[in-house]
Structures are given as C-alpha cells and as structure tokens.
Write a structure and sequence with these properties.
Layout: H1 2-13, H2 22-45, H3 48-51, H4 54-81, H5 93-99, H6 102-120, H7 124-131, H8 136-139, H9 141-144
Helix pairs in contact: 1-4, 2-4, 4-6
Length: 149
C-alpha cells in the first residue's frame, strides 16, 4: 500500500508524467492558478496605495501564508515520492539528487524566503528582496504545459 500511495502521489505531482485522470488535471490546474495568483499578488502588493492599507497588508500576509503552506506540502510530497522515479531510486541519495534538480530548486527558492523571514527574522527591507524570488514560481508553469514538452 505504501508503494502504491507513493506511486500515485508521484504521478499526481510530477507534470512531466502525462496523466489523463481528472485528479491530475485538477491538481495541476490548481497549482498553475496558485502560481499565477502569487505573481499577481506580488505585482499588486508593489502598488503603494494597496501596500499602505492595513486591510490589504493582512490579506497579502494571509494569502502568502496559505500559499507557502500549500507549496511546502507540495514540495515535501514531491521529495517524498521522488524515489519512485528510477533516476532517483535510492532512498536517501535519490531524494538528495532530486532536491538539487532545477525544478526542485525553483520550488525551494519560491518557499525559502518565507521560512528565512520566520526563523531568522530579517528586517522588512531584506524580506522584500527575498520576496522577488517568488517569481521563480512562474518558471514552473512551463513544466505544466504539454506544449512546452
């Protein structure tokens, strides 16, 4: 059952595996939508009239928090299920090889600024610099597009 679950998670979360199930399309569509919404949120948040309002600041904070939680869960599940792929078959070394792959590094760079801010506590100016890394999520869109393959 463990291997079957891992295989299913792997096929659902790795867009390079062509899946025709309803859940493949729903999950990948949701991830694409969340990536686009995050890029739009970064752009809107840079407008001073939205950035200065307390209500908008709360909205952007909670939207970012929810997005990071979802992307973190996705990243953890991708790393966990990566050794289902023959290229990353070793239990430890395979996962480490996957974690340094370009797609996994983009995922990590997209969520890492949030955790750096929470655990290290950089000031707001440094956080804004790190938030620019969220644009790396946009590069992941090509992984979800059949035309780009």
């Amino acid at each position: 059952m463990y291997r079957k679950t891992k295989a299913k998670v792997h096929s659902l979360l790795h867009p390079e595996i062509i899946g025709n199930s309803k859940w493949d399309r729903i999950i990948n569509g949701f991830i694409i939508l969340l990536i686009i919404l995050n890029v739009v949120a970064v752009m809107v948040e840079s407008v001073p009239s939205y950035r200065d309002s307390a209500a908008e600041q709360h909205f952007f904070h909670y939207f970012d928090l929810i997005s990071v939680i979802i992307f973190s869960i996705e990243y953890i599940l991708r790393v966990w299920s990566s050794n289902h792929d023959p290229r990353y078959s070793h239990r430890v070394h395979g996962r480490l090889r996957y974690m340094v792959s370009p797609a996994a590094l983009i995922d990590l760079l997209a969520i890492l600024p949030f955790y750096v801010h929470v655990f290290v506590g950089f000031d707001l100016r440094m956080l804004r610099i790190f938030r620019l890394m969220r644009f790396f999520r946009l590069f992941r869109l090509t992984a979800y597009s059949r035309a780009s393959r």
